[in-house]
Amino acid sequence: MTNQTLIVFVDFSKQLIGWVKKAKYALLDVNLFPKLSLVPKPRNKDAKNKDARDYASDVMIYLWDNYISLTEARQVVLIGHGPGCQNLMDLLNQRTVSVMKSVRAVVQVVGNYNIPATPRDADELRNWYYQHSYVVVPSGHRFLLDGNKFLKKHGRVLPIGKSTTWWYIPVTHFDIDEPKPILLITKSFPSICDFITQMIAAKSGTLVNGAS
């Protein structure tokens, strides 16, 4: 692999895959839904959920160690949606140093799943994640309905349902009230692409729409 930009999808959409190919970036599409034969038989429902998460996180770490980190790509973008968002966070926690060195952006299309957060005692990772993340949730997410406020550990969560300048990127936010992650992707697709483009350009020093 000779492309300097590598986009890593975790159970993502054909729409964004098409955009990545058109931009001539390298692509790694990861399906984290495990085959039943590969996951030990769970003792109960809680154990089943934990086993599935552990399996998926192990897959991500294996791919990072044996494929992603061995490529020539120095502008890696990690993109996940739904339950795959937590597995990306597990990767960040387990491979913090190498991830911070190579990853330029992390996009999390959470849907109504729990919003991943950096660990309490990982200040360096928390600061880095806040500066490099783009987190999409529906306006009806229970976290918002319960009156909670997004903290730095959650990354940069988009203001929903209005036009604004988010960080240094002008973004028009649609009324993202669709709870299904795959449909959230469709609604937030333009801003996701803009974010990735700006983050890659910012690192390389390229001017994009007046930003540097």
Automatic annotation (TrEMBL):
Source organism, top-level taxon:
Eukaryota
- Which residues are in the Arb2-like domain? 8-158
Q: Which InterPro entries match?
A: Arb2-like_domain
Which Pfam family, an example, fits this chain? Arb2-like
Name the UniProt record assigns to this protein: Arb2-like domain-containing protein
What is the species listed in this Swiss-Prot or TrEMBL entry?
Hermanssonia centrifuga
Source species taxonomy? Eukaryota, Fungi, Dikarya, Basidiomycota, Agaricomycotina
